[in-house]
Amino acid sequence: MPDYILLILGIILMLTGIIGCLVPVLPGPPVSYLGLILLHFSRFGHFSANILIILAVMTIIVTLLDYVVPIWGTKKFGGSKYGTRGATVGLIIGLFLGPVGIIAGPLIGAIVGELIFKDDIKYAIKAGFGSLLGFLTGIGLKLAASFVLTFYFVRELIK
Q: Whose C-alpha in 1, 24, 84, 113 is 20 to 30 A from the C-alpha of 126?
């Protein structure tokens, strides 16, 4: 019975981790990694120490990059922290508007954030695009990491 509980919790954490890649308040890859660890401690899965260490390092690197890449994208295009914050707010609102909202929300939010910082539409569009690019790159990295973790989870289950 405890093995089934670990399995169910592991599946829940894997799914929550993938959702967490899109929702800023949830740390996607670390949550997915916890799901993998739960599977490891059940009778349904056993990973080698090397795999667990490699996946842990990947998770840590992607989590750290998630803080650096949006700032880099914003600065590369001359943006400010207002653009990054606007992109985050735009994503949260965009989540309720489906796939188009997930893309358009951060862009519009970044532009609005930059307009609050500096009343120049040309600057705001350029900086907003940089904020969006950095933001989406971070999401892409997190999704890739969580899908790699999910792949190992599923592969271990069907072995």
A: 24
CA distances in angstroms from 54 to 22, 30, 35, 145, 159, listed in the order given: 24, 13, 16, 12, 20
Look up the pTM and report it. 0.80
Strand, coil or helix: 23: coil
Q: Which residues contact 39 (CB under 8 A, 6 or more apart)?
A: 6, 7, 10, 45, 153, 156, 157
**Containing H/E element for 130?**
helix 121-158
Residue 85: C-alpha distances to residues 4, 35, 56, 79, 81 (Å): 41, 30, 28, 11, 6
Q: What is the pLDDT along the chain (159 residues), one digit of tens a residue?
A: 788 999 999 999 999 999 999 877 789 999 999 999 999 999 888 899 999 999 999 999 999 998 788 778 777 887 788 888 888 888 889 888 877 887 788 889 889 998 998 888 998 888 888 877 888 888 899 999 999 999 999 999 887
Structural contact between residues 53 and 46, judged by C-beta atoms closer than 8 angstroms:
no
CA 154 to chain CA centroid, nearest Å: 20
Q: Which spans in 21-120 are helix H?
A: 28-40, 49-76, 81-94, 98-117
